[in-house]
Amino acid sequence: MKIGILGAGKVATALGSGLLARGYQVMISGRTRTESVRAWLEKSPAGSWGSPREAARFGELLILAVNPWSQIETVLASLDRQDIEGKAVLDPSNNIEWGERPRMAFDTVSMGQHVQKLVPEAHVVKTLTLIPSQWMVDPKSHGIPDNQWICGDDARAKAHVAAVLCDLGWTKVYDLGPLTMSQLMEGIGLLVTSMVTQLTAKSLD
Ligand SMILES: NC(=O)c1ccc[n+]([C@@H]2O[C@H](COP(=O)([O-])OP(=O)(O)OC[C@H]3O[C@@H](n4cnc5c(N)ncnc54)[C@H](OP(=O)(O)O)[C@@H]3O)[C@@H](O)[C@H]2O)c1
Question: How far apart (Å, rounded) are the C-alpha atoms in residues 97 and 128?
């Protein structure tokens, strides 16, 4: 199966490598072919790189791995609508505005709901928000539980994403229900991030 990844940073390359190792075809994407993209392509000769538009055309399933969140709209607006129609979009985007104290970027909708509004032709499935990129593949090998949560409004897209997560080593994938549940998932992400930020600051005192 072909996976198109929007982004070529930490999440994109971690998931991209994991998917290639499991027999998927992968295209990561970005604005410029950076040094780290070149290094990834050297390490992953079966993988490819293109523009976000090319990755969206390539993928039967898409992964949104763009940072900062304010660039998500620009990237999604650059895609041809027919290339994303009906496709599942695995969305790990956090709803966090970084600053002295992390806070929600959106407080009336979730980032997942924001993304869904930007791509009404596609089916957003929220997952992996709580997992650092280096643990997103083969969680058991990192000593963390292999449970994962998904939510979204389209049953077929959720089944599609759940199957990919299983292949990546998440053997128990729980369906939390509609995309509105991403408010809770992203809320926990902000809670954990805030705690870690404060604990880290304290330990530096
Ligand atoms: N890192 C984690 O551990 C982690 C964990 C859970 C969830 N997440 C979420 O996953 C998403 C990706 O995070 P990340 O850590 O992988 O970020 P990252 O390493 O900073 O990579 C972000 C990617 O977005 C691309 N990008 C930004 N603006 C763009 C634009 N206008 N056009 C094309 N590409 C653009 C960047 O390309 P350029 O090089 O061209 O800027 C880069 O490849 C975020 O939503 C984050 O909240 C991250």
Answer: 18
Ligand 1 centroid to Cα of residue 205, in Å, is 31
Is the overall model pTM greater than 0.90, yes or no? yes
Q: Answer yes or no: CATH 3.40.50.720 is held by domain 2-196.
A: yes
| Tokens found for residue 53 | 């538009």
Backbone angles phi, psi at 99, to 5 degrees: -170, -155
Query: Atom 28 (ligand 1): residue with closest C-alpha?
Result: 71
What are the tens digits of pLDDT across the range 9-68? 999 999 999 999 999 999 999 999 999 999 999 999 999 999 999 999 999 999 999 999
Closest CA to 86 of 55, 31, 124: 124
Domain edges within the chain? 2-196
**Measured distance CA(6)–CA(59) in Å, rounded:** 10
Measured CA angle at 114 (ends 126, 52), to 5 deg: 75
Nearest atom (ligand 1) to Cα of 67: 22
Q: Scanning the structure block, which residue is given the tokens 């898409």? A: 62
